[in-house]
Specification:
heterodimer; A: mainly alpha; Cytochrome Bc1 Complex, Chain D, domain 2; 2 domains; 14 helices; B: 525 residues; alpha+beta; Alpha-Beta Plaits; nitrate reductase domain fold; five-stranded mixed beta sheet; two-stranded antiparallel sheet; 22 helices
Chain lengths: 293, 525
């Protein structure tokens, strides 16, 4: 009690006003930086501004092409816009191989800041460079077997991520002979490379736009090398997926489990065949009439 | 010689009235807790009966105690013994499933009644009743069993006739025990025997059970116990219990906090019939293995021999060298246990064939009151009464006079074999000897107080039983007149020495006394 009251007395001094100023000041700067922060955190994995197509369209000049209201709706929930039959939204959705853009339920002020930032950035980048970048991303470069192997190990979790993030196959599956049944909690990634391209995959791995993935890797991000290995693995898995025939255990898995359990029960029944069964008083109990509840 | 001291007990069954005061005293102090409701560290059984838990004496069911390997049977000294249902290899094999444990229904499902319903029920057409509820599930139950359900032969076809001790009796002997006019029973109070060769201690995979060095009390360290329950199987007397709430095993602690303070254990303190005696005895720990693996017919006598004469200078010297305190030796010299078991030879261990060397001894009951049966010629009487009048057609004479002294012991309503199965591994001579002593003391005291028995007859009886008049008076005193301090000779605990081994008492000197209490108050004893 004495401690807190002395704190209050100090706070009433001249230092208190300094403190107020220090607290309020950053709020004025916020408007300028938060658009960029938002873009980096939520958009940059799939979109560039003047950097060409990635997973999603280049956003250079998008604020001129579309109305602010339409963009706001699309950011908040692209799928509801698509389902409502909006022609522009459907066109974009189909152009980018029906990839669903995750919902970003941001407040209107933040969306406005984001759009201001996108509008301001667009004119800064020369178009020529943007075109070159776009071509590069589309070209699939061959990958080294070593990288593929490392990527496979990371994917399966047999090698841990250096920052301790969870292995990919906890949630994702890839159809590949080397992979034993991955998770079904998130999207199956066999053809993700052709859908998103190397940069897109890499960008998602570096800065995931999906809430669950974001939470999973928030404090334990993947390193550059790890991303490169995983992209290499996903690329090779994509290229070879037609020739892969991972074994389908199907009913056999269940049957062998049941058989194993049966064998164990039999084994236990034999070792403990002389065990004490039930109560020595069971005969007496059985004779006693139950009360009528 | 490795002389150690052991707190030992004698229960005088001839005096037990079966009031269960001991059980209630124990329950109120130690087992009135969640998870321990079903545990009766002290219980009183009616014999013949199946006991608690049901048929605990039948080790074909519960696999308790030690068994001697058949190949070592002839060797005597070297025949090794193994735990019947536990031990290293069996324990490891069964560590995740202990196959011979008693289940709660072997004990009984503990219950209480909803007494509050009697006074708090709303007004209605019917009288409220206090329904029984399980103390395990909290739900209404039908009570099916209690801790002393076989009390006084209640339901004797289920309990008395299933007594495992009837196994060596002839069908005729068995049948005779349950004839309506001949039926008899006695009480058998049981607590942990604090054995010299405890199966529970040997079976524990965690090493949680131990036998205290200073007085031989067997305890479970609750910090170390991991609830494997091997001790529950290994104890042939079923006197370790598993607490389902704490997940640890518990057992009778012989009220060691009371003993250390010089008080008798609660069960003994409260005993209405004053049947319980407690004292310290000196024994030779080097002989435990030999004695425990002795052939069955020598077991009881060798068990008695392991206890040494506390007045023997050699024994005293060896005890002192082993660190036994002088006060403990003096206490052993005054021990009522040594008198009953060794000097007078009146007490026997319960089920010595389990080979745990129990240190609780029983004076067998001289029941029922003796009388001799003889043939009488009733012909004359019958003739006088005539054909129409009812008269007894049998010609047995039930003679309660003291003319025939020991002739009736063999014709007791309890076959000697039954007593022998309980107390002497089947040896009827040993039981007969003890019963004769009990009988001789009665005859002697009848001569002294009533005078209808001649001195020659009384002395003859004493002589035949191997007693002198002085011994008989001493037995009479300790049996009938003994005061509290005669029945319980408790050695000083020397806690101060134990504490000095662990910490330096100078640290506290000058720091305690009048002042303010700081920190938590701890019970200092």
């Amino acid at each position: 009690m004495t401690n807190s009251s002395s704190l209050e007395r100090h706070a009433a001094g001249p230092g208190f006003f300094l403190m107020i100023v220090a607290l309020v000041l950053p709020a004025f700067c916020w408007a300028q930086t938060s658009g960029e922060q938002l873009f980096q955190a939520s958009c940059s994995a799939c979109h560039s501004i003047g950097g060409g197509r990635r997973v999603g369209p280049d956003l250079d000049g998008v604020v001129e092409r579309r109305s602010e209201a339409w963009l706001g709706q699309f950011i908040k929930s692209s799928q509801s816009l698509v389902k409502s039959g909006d022609a522009e939204a459907v066109a974009v959705f189909e152009e980018f191989s029906s990839m669903v853009m995750p919902d970003f339920p941001l407040p209107d002020e933040e969306i406005a800041e984001l759009l201001v930032y996108i509008g301001a950035q667009g004119s800064n980048v020369p178009e020529v460079v943007a075109a070159n970048v776009a071509e590069e991303t589309q070209a699939a470069t061959p990958v080294s077997a070593d990288h593929v192997l490392k990527g496979l190990e990371l994917f399966q979790g047999s090698t841990r991520f250096s920052n301790g993030g969870p292995g990919c196959n906890a949630c994702h599956h890839v159809k590949n002979d080397a992979v034993i049944g991955g998770g079904i909690l998130a999207r199956e990634l066999t053809t993700v490379f052709s859908r998103m391209g190397g940069d897109g995959v890499g960008a998602i791995l570096g800065q995931a736009p999906f809430p669950v993935m974001q939470a999973a890797y928030k404090n334990q991000p993947l390193t550059e090398d790890e991303i490169a290995y995983l992209v290499a693995f996903l690329q090779s898995a994509d290229e070879q997926h037609l020739f892969q025939q991972p074994r389908d255990y199907g009913f056999g898995l269940f049957a062998s489990g049941a058989l194993g359990a049966g064998v164990m029960y039999l084994f236990f029944a034999i070792i403990w065949r002389g065990r004490k069964r039930g109560s020595v008083n069971q005969e007496i109990y059985d004779r006693q009439p139950p009360s009528h509840n | 010689m490795d002389i150690r001291s052991q707190i030992s007990m004698v229960f005088h069954l001839d005096k037990c009235i079966g009031c269960h005061t001991c059980s209630v005293a124990c329950k109120n102090i130690w087992t009135d807790r969640k998870g321990a409701e079903y545990q009766w560290w002290n219980n009183v059984e009616t014999k013949p009966g199946t006991g608690y838990p049901g048929k605990w004496e039948d080790q074909d069911i519960y696999k308790g105690g030690w068994e001697k390997k058949s190949n070592g049977a002839g060797n005597g000294e070297s025949g090794d013994i193994k735990l019947k249902g536990a031990g290293k290899r069996k324990g490891l094999g069964n560590i995740f499933h202990n196959p011979n444990l008693p289940v709660i229904d072997d004990y009984y499902e503990p219950f209480t009644y909803k007494y509050l319903d009697l006074i708090e029920s709303p007004a209605g057409d019917d009288q409220p009743t206090a329904r029984p509820v399980s103390l395990i599930t909290g739900k209404h139950i039908d009570i099916k069993m209690g801790p002393n359900w076989d009390d006084d032969l209640g339901g004797s076809p289920d309990y008395a006739r299933n007594d495992p001790n009837l196994k060596n009796l002839t069908p005729a002997e068995r049948e005779a025990m349950f004839q309506l006019e001949k039926m008899a029973f006695f009480y058998l109070p049981r607590i942990c025997n604090h054995c010299l060769n405890p199966g529970c201690v040997a079976s524990c995979p965690s090493g949680a059970l131990y036998k205290r060095g200073e007085d031989g009390i067997v305890l479970v360290n609750q910090e170390v116990c991991r609830g494997w329950r091997m001790c529950v199987t290994a104890c042939p007397y079923k006197k370790t219990y598993y607490n389902w709430h704490t997940g640890k095993s518990e057992k009778c602690i012989l009220c060691f906090p009371r003993i250390e303070a010089g008080l008798a254990p609660a069960c003994m303190h409260s005993c209405v019939g004053r049947i319980r005696y407690l004292g310290v005895v000196l024994y030779d720990a080097d002989k435990i293995q030999d004695v425990a693996s002795a052939p069955e017919d020598e077991l009881v006598n060798r068990h008695m021999d392991i206890m040494l004469d506390p007045n023997d200078p050699e024994v005293i010297e060896a005890a002192k060298q082993n660190g036994v305190a002088d006060s403990t030796i003096r206490s052993a010299q005054a021990s009522p246990i040594y008198k009953f078991v060794k000097e007078w030879g009146m007490a026997l261990p319960l089920h010595s064939e389990f080979r745990t060397l129990p240190m609780l001894f029983y004076v067998p009951p001289l029941l029922p009151v003796m009388a001799s049966l003889s043939r009488a010629n009733n012909a004359e009487q019958a003739e006088k009464l005539g054909a129409k009048t009812k008269f007894w057609s049998d010609d047995w004479l039930y003679d309660t006079s003291t003319e025939e002294l020991f002739g009736t012991i063999d014709q007791a309503r309890f076959p000697l074999q039954y007593m022998a199965n309980l107390f002497s591994a089947g040896d009827t001579d040993m039981v007969r000897e003890r019963l004769m002593k009990l009988m001789a003391v009665r005859i002697h005291r009848r001569h002294v107080t009533v005078g209808d028995v001649s001195k020659e007859k009384a002395d003859g009886a004493l002589h035949e039983a191997g007693l002198t008049a002085e011994m008989a008076d001493a037995i009479y005193y300790l049996t009938a007149l003994a005061k509290f301090d005669d029945r319980f000779v408790i050695p000083a605990a020397h806690r101060e020495q134990a504490i000095e081994m662990m910490e330096f008492t100078g640290d506290k000197k000058g720091n305690t006394g009048f002042g303010f209490k700081e920190g938590t108050a701890q019970r200092g004893l």
